[in-house]
Amino acid sequence: MDNKVTFRTFKTGDYEMVSEWWRWWWKGEIPVKKSLLPQDNRCFIIESNGIPVAASFLYSSMGRESNLGYLTWTVSNPEYKERDRRQMLELLITSIEKEAKEVWGIKFLFTVCGNKHMENIHRKLDWYIEDSSPAYECFKYF
């Protein structure tokens, strides 16, 4: 990757942009309501040369007995056609893993992949994936 990559949290206008991505990928279905998303400091975007490529969302259950995180609703920009698209998705997920562990103290992170492509990305990133078909549930211990 010979580009400037930025990993950041949500800013003004990001929810509306990501909602359009969901509408495209989900064939017009209603996007996730903003009120159901985590706070903006746990809503993440990855950019390549200033172009938003993908987003994902980190929920956490923190407490004395639970340091659990849930990564969900990962979505990519349908207009981003560059060859590094998959690499950018991988970088988004590994950046969230690092944030979850180092900033939020999460020790166990899980997700439900919506398709085989996301399952393969998680497999490559050393997430545990049940060997069944479809194997959409993935998790990782830190």
For the biggest sheet, the summary is: 7 strands, mixed
If strands are numbered along the chain, what order do they take across the biggest sheet?
Answer: 1-2-3-4-5-7-6
Query: In angstroms, what separates the terminal alpha carbons?
Result: 27 Å
Rg is 15 Å
Q: State the oligomer.
A: single chain
The structure class reads alpha+beta
Roughly what fraction of the amino acids lie in strands?
25-35%
What does this 3D model show about the protein?
The protein is α+β, with helices and mostly antiparallel strands and 142 residues long. The protein has one domain: Gcn5-related N-acetyltransferase (GNAT) (Aminopeptidase), CATH 3.40.630. The chain has a seven-stranded mixed beta sheet. The longest helix has 18 residues. The radius of gyration is 15 Å and the shape is globular. The two termini are 27 Å apart.
Chart the SSEs and their pairings.
Elements: E1 5-9, H1 14-25, E2 43-48, E3 51-63, E4 66-76, H2 85-102, E5 108-112, H3 116-124, E6 128-129, E7 137-141
Parallel strand pairs: 4-5
Antiparallel strand pairs: 1-2, 2-3, 3-4, 5-7, 6-7
Core attributes:
single chain, 142 residues, alpha+beta, Aminopeptidase, 7 strands, globular
